[in-house]
Design goal:
Helix content: 25-40%
Number of strands: 21
Radius of gyration: 24 Å
Structural class: alpha+beta
Length: about 625
C-alpha cells in the first residue's frame, strides 16, 4: 500500500518453475498476535472455499465460508468476526456449537467453533451487516460512468474479518477458491485468477493457488472492462476510464521485467491493476494479481505511476514475504519503498529516483515533527497492542524504513545489497517473518559475511533518525529552491526555467513555500501557473494545503477545495487538507465540508477524519 504520491507497480512462461502453495502445518511457532483472537498454534485454517451472493439492493453479502483446518489436539478453533451475522456453523458437515465472545471496538469478536481432533472442515454460513467496515457500496452517481453501482473491499489491516469470518492475522496464510454471484450487468474480480469478460449469468469463479494472508483477499464488483498491456499485465476500469488507464499504465510490463531483473522471478503469474472510483481510501493496495488503484493517479502523462512500481514491489516485499504482525509493518513498507525507488531509477534514471526519495525524506521529517510527543511511535519496530494497527501505517514505516535500507546499501555496497535482498526474498517466499528474525538473517547473510559493522538495532528499536542516515540530494531540487527563493525576494519568476518541470519539481516548489509567503504572492503564482485548476492531483493537493494554511482565497480556490474533498476519498489527500484546516484554525469550514463529504468516504478514511476533527 502506498501513501505518498508515489503515493503511491516468469512464471507465466514456465509453469514448471512457478511457486506452488506450501502446505500449512502446525508447528507451534506462530507469534503472539495482538490484533487477532485466533490461536493458530492450537488450530489453524489452511484453505478457504467461499460461496457468496452480493445483493446491491440490501447491500448485504451472504453465503458460506468453508475452511480446511489442521489442529493440534484442539477442541475448538477460533476465528475473527466483526459486525457479522453468523447463521450456522458445521464441522465436517454436521452442525456444531459456536459462540461469539465479547465485542472489542477494534478487534470485533472471537468466533469459537467446537471441533474434534479428526475435524477436517468447518463451514460458516453468515451475512454482512450495515456496519461492515471493509465494504464500500457506491451508487451509480458515485462512479465514473454513473450508470451502475459499484462495490469494493479493503482488508488491510484487520478489516477482512468484517466481510468474511476468518483468522485475520498476517502470519496465517491460506489458499482460496471463490464463487461469487452478482447482478448480470456487472463483473466481479478478486485477488486471484480473474475473468476478462462478463459472464451471462453473473456467476464468477476464482482460484488463488498461492497462500496469502487474509488482508490480501479482495473483491471488486462493477460495470468494468479489461484491456491487456502484455500477456501478463493489463487494466480493469469503467468504460469511460479504460483507455485513459491503459495509456497511463502502459509501462507496466517494463516495470515487471525491471523488478525481476533486480530481485528474481515474479511468482504470481499475472499483474493487473483495477482503477476504482474516487472514494478508494489509498493510492493503491497490493492485492496479489490485482492491484487496486485510485483514479487520482490518472494524470495523463504517467507522472504519478510510481504507484504502480510501489504496488508491484509489494509482490516481493509484503505479498511474497509478509510481516508476521502489524508491529513489524516496516518490513512490508520500508522494503517496498526501497524496491520501488530502485525500479524507478532503473526505468527513468537516478535523478527522478532521488527526487522521489527526497520527497519521502521531507514526508519523514514532517511525520517526526507530528510525533514529537510520542517518540515510541518513531521506532521501526512498534508495540501496537491495544491500538488500531492503522496507527503504524505512516511515514515511519515507509520512509524511515527506506532510509534504513538506503543507509545500509551505502555501507555494504549496492552489489552486496542486491545479492542479499534477492536471497532474502527467495529464502522467505510465501512465508512470514518478524523483525527479530530479519535481524538474524541480516547479520548472518550480509553483515557478518562481509565483516561489516552497522547500527541495525539503533535504527530499528530507537526513536528518531540515527546520525549515520544517508544524505539524499537532488540537483534538480536545488534549482527549484533557487527559483523559489528568487521569486520570494523579487516577486518575479522566470517561467522559462520552469517550463520543463515534471510534477515532482512542482510539488517540491509548492511544499517549500516560506511561512510568511503573502496572499498576493500566491495570487501571482496562481495566475501564472493556474495551480488551482491543475489536473495533477498531487500538485492540486499540495497547492490546496498551502492555500488553506496561508488563507489564500483567490481564483475560487475555496469552492475547489470543497469539491475536491467531496469527490476524492484518498485518505492521504483528505487527511492532509483537513489537518491544514485544523492547523490554520479554520475548523468550522472543515466541519462544514466534512458534513457533506463523509458519506463519500470509505470507513478507513472516515475513521481517520473523525478522530482528527473529534467527530
Amino acid at each position: 500500500m502506498k501513501k505518498v504520491f508515489i503515493l503511491a507497480v516468469c512464471c507465466i512462461f514456465a509453469f514448471t518453475n512457478c511457486k506452488q502453495p506450501k502446505e500449512n502445518t502446525i508447528t507451534n511457532t506462530y507469534a503472539e498476535e495482538p490484533h487477532s483472537f485466533a490461536q493458530p498454534n492450537q488450530a489453524v485454517i489452511t484453505h478457504l472455499d467461499l460461496d457468496i451472493a452480493v445483493d446491491f439492493d440490501t447491500q448485504i453479502i451472504s453465503g458460506t465460508a468453508t475452511y480446511n483446518i489442521k489442529n493440534n489436539n484442539a477442541k475448538e478453533i477460533i476465528l475473527d468476526a466483526k459486525y457479522l451475522n453468523i447463521i450456522d456453523v458445521k464441522a465436517d458437515g454436521e452442525q456444531t456449537a459456536f459462540t461469539l465472545g465479547d465485542s472489542d471496538e477494534k478487534l470485533g469478536q472471537p468466533l469459537a467453533i467446537s471441533i474434534q481432533e479428526t475435524t477436517k472442515k468447518i463451514a460458516i454460513t453468515y451475512q454482512t451487516t450495515d456496519k461492515t467496515e471493509a465494504l464500500q457500496w457506491l451508487n451509480a452517481q458515485q462512479t465514473a460512468d454513473k450508470t451502475n453501482p459499484f462495490l469494493f473491499t479493503q482488508g488491510q489491516a484487520i478489516l477482512t474479518r468484517t466481510w468474511i469470518p476468518i483468522q485475520d492475522s498476517p502470519q496465517i496464510r491460506i489458499t482460496y477458491n471463490a464463487t461469487v454471484k452478482v447482478p448480470s450487468e456487472l463483473m466481479a474480480v478478486m485477488s486471484a485468477e480473474n475473468p476478462k469478460e462478463k459472464t451471462a449469468d453473473g456467476v464468477y469463479t476464482f482460484k488463488m493457488t498461492q497462500p496469502i494472508p487474509a488482508y490480501l483477499i479482495a473483491l471488486a464488483i462493477g460495470d468494468i472492462e479489461y484491456k491487456a498491456i502484455s500477456n501478463r499485465t493489463g487494466v480493469y476500469a469503467e468504460k469511460s476510464m479504460i483507455e485513459k488507464a491503459h495509456a497511463e499504465f502502459s509501462d507496466m510490463e517494463k516495470m515487471v521485467a525491471t523488478a525481476e531483473n533486480l530481485y528474481g522471478a515474479y511468482d504470481w503469474e499475472q499483474f493487473d491493476v483495477i482503477v476504482l472510483p474516487p472514494s478508494f481510501p489509498f493510492g493503491g493496495m497490493e492485492n496479489p494479481r490485482l492491484t487496486f488503484a485510485t483514479p487520482t493517479v490518472i494524470a495523463g502523462d504517467k507522472s504519478l505511476t510510481t504507484l504502480v512500481a510501489h504496488e508491484l514491489a509489494h509482490s516481493w516485499s509484503g505479498n511474497l514475504v509478509t510481516n508476521a504482525t502489524w508491529n513489524d509493518f516496516w518490513l512490508n513498507e520500508g522494503f517496498t519503498v526501497y524496491f520501488e525507488i530502485r525500479i524507478m531509477e532503473a526505468l527513468y534514471g537516478k535523478e527522478r529516483a532521488d527526487m522521489l526519495a527526497l520527497i519521502g525524506r521531507q514526508d519523514l521529517d514532517d511525520e517526526l515533527e507530528s510525533l514529537k510527543d510520542s517518540p515510541n511511535d518513531t521506532k521501526l519496530k512498534l508495540d501496537l497492542k491495544g491500538r488500531d494497527p492503522g496507527d503504524g501505517m505512516n511515514s515511519i514505516a515507509y520512509d524511515k524504513g527506506y532510509l534504513f535500507l538506503r543507509t545500509l546499501e551505502e555501507k555494504v555496497g549496492r552489489e552486496n545489497m542486491d545479492a542479499f535482498l534477492k536471497s532474502y526474498f527467495k529464502t522467505h517466499a510465501f512465508s512470514t517473518t518478524n523483525t527479530e528474525d530479519f535481524i538474524t538473517y541480516l547479520n548472518i547473510n550480509l553483515l557478518n559475511k562481509n565483516n561489516i559493522t552497522f547500527n541495525t538495532e539503533e535504527w530499528i528499536y530507537e526513536a528518531g533518525i540515527p546520525d549515520n542516515a544517508a544524505v539524499i540530494k537532488s540537483d534538480a531540487f536545488t534549482t527549484v529552491k533557487n527559483v523559489l527563493t528568487t521569486f520570494i525576494e523579487t516577486d518575479a519568476i522566470d517561467t522559462a526555467k520552469t517550463s520543463e518541470w515534471p510534477p515532482q519539481e512542482w510539488v517540491y516548489f509548492i511544499r517549500n513555500f516560506p511561512e510568511d509567503i503573502t496572499t498576493s504572492q500566491m495570487q501571482h503564482l496562481d495566475d501564472t501557473f493556474n495551480f488551482s485548476e491543475s489536473t495533477n492531483s498531487y500538485i492540486t493537493m499540495v497547492w490546496f494545503e498551502q492555500s488553506i494554511l496561508n488563507n489564500y482565497h483567490g481564483n475560487d480556490v475555496d469552492a475547489r477545495i470543497s469539491k475536491f474533498l467531496n469527490t476524492v476519498g484518498r485518505r492521504w489527500y483528505v487527511t492532509t487538507l483537513f489537518k491544514a484546516f485544523k492547523k490554520a484554525d479554520r475548523i468550522d469550514e472543515a466541519l462544514a465540508i466534512y458534513k457533506t463529504a463523509r458519506p463519500n468516504y470509505h470507513t478507513v478514511t472516515a475513521n481517520t477524519i473523525d478522530a482528527l476533527l473529534n467527530e
